Fold this sequence. Notes:
This protein is of the alpha+beta class and 204 residues long. The protein has two domains: 51 residues, no CATH class; 144 residues, MM3350-like (Structural Genomics Hypothetical 15.5 Kd Protein In mrcA-pckA Intergenic Region, Chain A), CATH 3.10.290.30. It is built from three helices and nine strands, in the order ααβββαββββββ.
Amino acid sequence: xxxIKRNDKCPCGSGKKYKKCCLANPDKNSEIIHARSIAHTYExxxxxxxxxxxxxxxxVELIRMGFQEIDTEVSRTFEIEGKQTLYDLHIxxxxxxxxxNDHMFSFYLSDKLFDIDNxxxxxxxxxxFISSFGKSSKSASDAQLRDLGISTGLSFWYxxxxxxxxxxxVTVEEVREMTSKDIDLPKMLHQxxxxxxxxxxxxx
Length: 204
Ligand SMILES: [Zn+2]
């Protein structure tokens, strides 16, 4: 990681000392720590910090529950900030579909469901777990959307509950720069269809 000393000029460009500027503000400092974790040079660091946050418009569609294909559209479309993690996205999906957040989940950043090399997982509390299949996924709580190479048109998978297998496809509809009007993110933009009962299959 690139070093910034307390008495250095703050990398945000304010002209103040780091200790009197972003170091004293947890939100701003977390942005500086994030930039330090991915920048290779100071020039790159300043560019990352100066860049406006991206906002992602994501359409999440329920594809199947266990063996039952969902044949009418059930989807929710969100806007979410790039600094949010896949765990944050999981929580948004849980609320939007009215699921109970009572099982583990994985995102597969891939066109293949169960692609362990591109898997990001956690339990309902956001804690990462080690796969029993030998290979392990990465932590969904550590994965910020902006660092995942996600671009418009891409789609990937969200699997909730490994037993009942609620399978969702997430499509990136737009990636745009955040503006001063974006004060209420994350937010739901559209919903289509009623989500079935999470335990519907068991009642039959
Ligand atoms: Zn600063």
